[in-house]
Design brief:
Layout lengths: L7 H18 L3 H17 L9 H9 L6 H20 L26 H17 L3 H16 L3 H5 L12 E5 L5 E5 L2 H11 L11 E2 L2 E2 L2 H14 L9 H14 L4 H8 L4 H4 L7 H11 L16
Antiparallel strand pairs: 1-2, 3-4
Helix pairs in contact: 1-2, 1-9, 5-6, 6-8, 6-10
Amino acid sequence: MTIAAGSVRDEALIEQFLEMLSAETGAARNTLMAYGADLRCASDTLHGDLGGAGKDALTQLTESWATLARTTVMRKASALHRFFGFLVEDGHRADDPSAALPKLGVARKLPKVLSHEDVDRLLAAVKDRLDRDPSTANLRTAALIELLYGSGLRATELVSLPRMLIRPEQPFIILKGKGGRERLVPLSAKAIEAVAAYARTLPAKTQWLFPSGDGHISRVRLYQLIRELAIEAGLAPERVSPHVLRHAFATHLLEGGADLRALQTMLGHADIATTQIYTHVDSQRLVDLVSTRHPLADTPRVDAGPKRS
């Protein structure tokens, strides 16, 4: 298949999306082929600018589906919904135009969440590995886990970290995302310590923090490493991925009282609506907060009437 010059960027984004889908969800080959075909067809219709399409372009796209069966339309819309969700989450664009697509008839799926106990089991598995064998490979796994859970980095951001970016005396890093947008990412003390221990095993001239061959480790390899650790920790491997650990970072911060706007900044979300999906895990805490902290919490109701002795 020959790819037109205008669709080269779309093809690269589609390949990255399918790679993520395969690694994170274990999607079957036929599923990946169907998603790929639908996305490339949409790209052709939009003259190679699917990745940058706005709501007007997607409206025109859906109009071209007028003669298709409803099930086909829903399949195409599902592929595009997931594709644009991936682009936003991975920092390839700031907005999600998929509201212009046909509604799927189901609510947006909430992110998978690991409990504090689940994360403790993962970290305990890391410690067990290091106690048995403090090798470079195990030190690397410890650094990867601590950075994912302690900083909420995206998988792509994590695997491509320059070696010299993280310094022991600096409890944060500044990442530059798509469009030149910069954000400050805090680093936990444990993450800094884990990275320092691992970095000491690397050759002095290594460019990447997590090198592999002539470049850095791939997203797929990162998924594999984390799922191997999940099995050792006694967790179902399909429940654990880099993305899920990023979700755990966000939800556990909210449970601890973090401000939603601050969380938006740390996660690199351009739109607060993207961050608000995490509030589902914190609804009861917010209700309790209003019940106990609001100035009128202890004020008797107007219709309660006088107390009877």
